[in-house]
Structures
1.
Amino acid sequence: MCAFHACDDPQPRRDLVINVLANHRTWNFASIVVDKPRVNPSLYDPMSFYPKFTAMVLRFVFKGRVRPGASGVLIYTDTLPFQKKKALAVEVAIKGSCRRDLPSLPFQICHHRRESNAWIQVADYCSWSVFRKWEHGNHNAYNLLRGRLAATEIDPMSRGDGTVYY
């Protein structure tokens, strides 16, 4: 099985993948940008960090984007490359968001290797395009995928007092 990984793929492959994604009209994505040096140290613990920021993006996705008549929600993540404590925090955050924002719908969380799920690879490319915009000021991929972006990426750090902790 072929797997795409935006940061590792050669530019010609990235161009092809982004072109396919940009021209496929039946999907969109949401993104959250967490500028870690601006995160209050009280949230550094994985049991606080992951639930807080995972819940923000999931709440956005769930509000108004679950089709009427849906019988359930499937949430796919890449295999979690964390130690047990961090992996548990991510799992708790996802389950908490689902229970709160999808009270009447059953949900299932699946952790798959990215190679086995095309949507995880799509998420990788979308995340990479947002990262390149914010971290390097390179808007090329972002601008090509902007039409698939459901809304401007969530920037929770913009609501803070601007303190940089490290």
2.
Amino acid sequence: MRAVHPICVTCGVQFAETERTPAVCPVCADERQFVGWAGQRWTTLEALRGGHRLAVRDEGDGLLGIGCEPRFAIGQRALLVPAKPQDGPGRHLLWDCISLIDDAAVRLVEAAGGLGGIAISHPHFYGAMVEWSRAFGGAPIWLHVDDRDWVMRPDPAIRFWEGERLELGPGLTLLRLGGHFPGGQVLHWADAAGGRGALLSGDIVQVVQDRRYVSFMRSYPNFIPLPAAAVRRIAERLEPVPFERIYGGWFDLVVREDGKAALRRSAERYLRALEHA
């Protein structure tokens, strides 16, 4: 067998180069995820390109949503966050990641102004992050050090950071919230919504189907809740952060108005439910 970078079909995470695929994906074997009902299955980026294509949508605020169709693995979409004009070309940020990258994706990002870096909320969304980085000259990938052990394809472009907040540039701040994963991080984008701000949250803060609310879980597919202390800590951490909108991890899952109030009442509802239980 020739050496490949296998991609797990269930979670979409790409692994280090190998001539023999692992028996199981550690990301999926963890209680927050699951091994597919048909057992552990693998694919490659080459095979993915043959049967899938890029899905691109305008998500508002100048954000480009980038996904994969037909749906693959968890089905999340990434967001291309525009730089300010004075920041110069190549300073756009890719928030979260997907498993597919092809020539169309590279042309799309280059036409938008290039890529200066990548930041990812948590391990389920790592996708083919190293392929995306290398396609744009080794763009740095910012991950929180608390999730270091979940990196299945190490690379020099990965920058592990420590602490509770990291300024990536003017108006762009990573906040470690934990919860779903110890290093779970969100991106605060101060210039969104006409300067009222937006939270790009993956599913560290999950926008739910009733888009007036969000939720917080240890595992979404396996319905494992977070303890009250973790939810309270997330809500308190975000209380001083100004934001009007919350962009979740999938197309159309966006709280467009009064996002701070939505987070507040969602945390209160979650905590009430635990108390009643």
